[in-house]
Design brief:
This protein is α/β, with parallel strands linked by helices. The chain has a single domain, classed as Alpha/Beta hydrolase fold, catalytic domain (Rossmann fold, 3-Layer(aba) Sandwich), CATH 3.40.50. The protein is built from 13 helices and eight strands. The protein has an eight-stranded mixed sheet with strand order 1-2-4-3-5-6-7-8, with helices on both faces. Helix 2 crosses helix 3 and helix 7 crosses helix 8. The longest helix is centred in the last third of the chain and has 15 residues.
Length: 305
Amino acid sequence: MCFGEFVSTSTPRSAAVNGVQLQLVEAGRAGDPLVILAHGFPDLAYTWRHQIDVLAAAGFHVLAPDQRGYGGSSRPESVTDYDIHALTGDLVALIDQAGCERAVVIGHDWGAMVAWHTALLHPERVAAVAGLSVPPTPRPRSRPTQRWREKFGEDFYMLRFQEPGPADHALAADVAATMRGLLAGDPTAALPDWISEAELDVYISEFSRTGFTGGLNWYRNYDRNWETTPELETARITAPALFVGGTADPILGFMRPERATEVATGPYREVLIEGAGHWVHQERPEEVNRVLLDFLAEYGKGGPR
């Protein structure tokens, strides 16, 4: 149950939560079932532009933050301020501020990791959970950076992100090339038809202003997150869970969605969209929205658990 007043569609505002200031896009009616949308790396609340109003029109109160380290939100200096306890704590604090007992948490990429961990670390606050592009996976048996070195070698991108400085400078040296490369697959390539030059300019403008250090600090906590969550060895996601991925997303080559039900032991469904890549909610918004609305219709308004 939530309490609140009407909120106009797609209204930006700022919220002081969990020791940081988060810039939000808000839509829907406060008091309706709460849905929090958590973006990934390197991204912004803007990534959900095709979902926010659709979910609000379906009867949900939607909050999409620029997560800590991004966009208009606070960018703490300490690397440890970006561990999984802080990131999930931000979402729980948003639930508190909205006057709700629970919310549906939906994340993409790193935001999916935060969504899954919110369901694991704060199960009483999560009515249902969905991850786009990154499935739920069991807790690894060894330190993440050790596993990456053994499996992928020293040049694996998440290992290159670990040292503060080099990756930060490399990504920020030419923000336009960085963002075009991430979204189009090549910094010199034409944009795919699902994103316009004007939309790309939103990303270029924000990351030119903020740099990439805040988002990179999320990666620098992988080992810390593993060390500080031994309880996740036996924890399970019991809330209704949904994974949506694209069959052309290279991340599925090492995230292993076939292991999802080892950790998601409640109602679980997987939807793979043929030919979609990593930015599935931007690439195929109508299909993703339909899947999300079906899931929310069943579980987002106090449906069966």
